């Protein structure tokens, strides 16, 4: 049995299908988890951050055939694309799981056998409308008026076959009760309500979950341990990755991290995560994960969900090369309100980055450093200037809003809280005008600019999970290493008293229109 929740933090991305290249949609989830993982580490927690690839099923077989590769060759090549992308974007995942690994096969078979032995798996004939894109049967209600899958815009295929079924119905009432009593189990609330609605619908239909595929139709999967004529249904296989990676059932990771497991997904895969997965855990007598956090879609051209099949997906590595890795992270975290959809256009990207990073914070940083150099004022740990009291008044409130926003995955709100301080610092520079001070009260210039600089160092500390590279570089340049992870008073900031010669530009204005021309 796992420990009670402790100082540990476990976060997962979905494991991505290897039939597509990583695009901006996958990148958002991975960067959001990475930002959260970095934040939790900065708080001093012990973090396990998992991502990986989902490699079995019809979809992969079909995609491999098109390229005249075996499913295994195809899966390995494309899984490496994800691994490579996350490496290039400096994602700090602690593990990368592939569902074709031996450790995973063991867990899947162990859990299936356990559920089978207690009588919660049986065989039956099934007929339904199967969407190969979603790798699941769709109900009539889920289809668009034209009879298409709402995500893949194609009609599902009618299929009839004998399969093994998991007695999901048995666990639905208990799951419903769990969701009702644990308000944050599925977050934000809109998705919690959607899950409750879907449970009621499933109870009404009375259907269980088909969890196998006959090998004569599909052999690319994990054998059912009690019948080698069948392989495991891809969702049953895939969901278990979250448990495999902890070292279930005996691993230290299972004991330490499982009680604090948080799964991040987009709304497309709410049903498998909010309903199939917890009922599977109940049947396997494994405690439920702690929380499911659900975000909306990045919409690309035509205001459609960005995806490979709709042809409007963006390559994250190319984009990062163009605008910078931290700028990409910043944009994704600032622009999407976690839970709602967000639109990706070059215009929103450019406006957001130029306004926030070049004009507001970037300008504050550049002008402060230039003035420090021009007036030969530091960095120096001088007594604080009188304007520090206004800054110190804001800091605890800013920190409170920032941490509260992080606790709710509202990254945009955390960033907004920081910009209040950035604006205050810019305002103080205008108000006190060091260029005038230099003529009228020259002795005040250094204390003033160094007070502003300490405020900038505070901001860099809080920006660190979001823009790790730039914040890290500037903190290395400007701050002593005694600075706390999340300072709440300027007196906690010790500056690195090294001469400022050349420093990198925090953010170069971008003009994507000009670049295209
Ligand atoms: O569903 N906007 O894999 P997948 C936001 N293998 N997020 C997006 C997105 C978009 N336009 N497009 C993709 C699968 N995503 C299964 C998961 S888990 C046990 C198995 C992100 O490759 C988002 O996180 O289709 C979404 O849930 C996921 O990619 C789907 O990835």
Number of helices: 19
| Helical coverage, percent range | 40-55%
Segments where pLDDT lies below 50 for 5+ residues?
none
Cα radius of gyration in angstroms: 26 Å
CATH H-level superfamily of the largest domain: HUPs
* Number of structural units classed as domains: 2
Model description:
By secondary structure, this protein is α/β, with parallel strands linked by helices. The chain has 19 helices and 15 strands. The strands form four sheets. It has a six-stranded parallel beta sheet with strand order 3-2-1-12-13-7, sandwiched between helices. It has a four-stranded antiparallel beta sheet with strand order 5-4-6-8, with helices on one face. Helix 2 packs across helix 3, helix 12 (325-335) crosses helix 13 and helix 13 (346-374) packs parallel to helix 15 (411-432). The relative contact order is 0.11. The model has no long low-confidence stretch (mean pLDDT 95). It binds ligand ME8. Ligand ME8 binds at residues 14-17, 25-26, 28-29, 54, 238-239, 241, 265-266, 268-269, 297-298, 305-307.
């Amino acid at each position: 049995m796992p420990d009670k929740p402790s100082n540990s933090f476990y976060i997962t991305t979905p494991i991505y299908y290897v039939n597509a290249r990583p695009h901006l949609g996958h990148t958002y989830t991975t960067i959001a988890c990475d930002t959260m993982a970095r934040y939790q580490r900065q708080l001093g927690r012990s973090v396990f951050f998992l991502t990986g690839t989902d490699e079995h099923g019809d979809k992969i077989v079909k995609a491999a055939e098109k390229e005249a590769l075996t499913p295994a060759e195809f899966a390995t090549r494309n899984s490496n694309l994800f691994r490579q992308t996350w490496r290039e974007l400096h994602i700090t995942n602690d593990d990368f799981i592939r569902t074709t690994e031996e450790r995973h096969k063991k867990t899947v078979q162990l859990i299936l056998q356990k559920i089978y032995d207690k009588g919660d798996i049986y065989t039956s004939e099934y007929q339904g409308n199967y969407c190969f894109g979603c790798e699941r049967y769709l109900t009539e209600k889920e289809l668009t008026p034209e009879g298409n899958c709402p995500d893949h815009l194609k009609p599902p295929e009618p299929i009839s076959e004998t399969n093994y079924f998991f007695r999901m119905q048995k666990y639905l009432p208990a799951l419903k009760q769990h969701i009702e009593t644990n308000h944050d189990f599925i977050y934000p609330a809109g998705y919690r309500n959607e899950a409750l609605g879907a449970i009621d619908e499933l109870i009404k239909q009375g259907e269980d979950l088909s969890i196998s595929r006959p090998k004569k139709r599909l052999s690319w999967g994990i054998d059912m341990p009690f019948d080698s004529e069948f392989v495991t249904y891809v969702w049953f296989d895939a969901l278990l990755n979250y448990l495999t990676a902890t070292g279930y059932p005996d691993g230290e990771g299972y004991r330490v991290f499982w009680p604090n497991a948080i799964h991040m997904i987009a709304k497309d895969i709410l049903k498998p995560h909010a309903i199939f997965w917890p009922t599977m855990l109940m049947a396997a007598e494994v405690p439920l994960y702690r929380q499911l956090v659900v975000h909306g879609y990045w919409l690309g051209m035509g205001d459609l969900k960005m995806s490979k099949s709709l042809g409007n997906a963006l390559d994250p590595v190319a984009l990062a090369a163009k605008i910078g890795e931290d700028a990409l992270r910043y944009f994704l975290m600032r622009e999407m309100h976690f839970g709602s959809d967000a639109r990706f256009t070059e215009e929103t990207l450019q406006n957001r980055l130029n306004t926030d990073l070049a004009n507001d914070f970037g300008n504050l940083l550049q002008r402060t450093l230039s003035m420090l150099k021009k007036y030969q004022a530091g960095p120096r740990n001088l007594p604080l200037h009188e304007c520090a009291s206004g800054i110190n008044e804001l800091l605890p409130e800013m920190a409170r809003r920032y941490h509260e926003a992080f606790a709710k995955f509202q990254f945009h709100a955390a960033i907004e809280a920081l910009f209040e301080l950035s604006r205050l610092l810019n305002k103080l520079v205008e108000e006190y005008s060091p260029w005038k001070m230099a003529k009228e009260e020259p002795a005040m210039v250094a204390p003033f600019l160094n007070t502003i600089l300490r405020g900038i160092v505070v901001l860099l500390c809080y920006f660190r999970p979001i823009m790790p590279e730039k914040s890290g570089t500037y903190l290395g340049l400007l701050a002593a290493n005694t600075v706390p992870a999340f300072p709440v008073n300027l007196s906690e900031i010790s500056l690195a008293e090294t001469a400022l010669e050349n420093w990198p530009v925090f953010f170069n204005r971008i003009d994507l229109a000009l670049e295209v021309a």
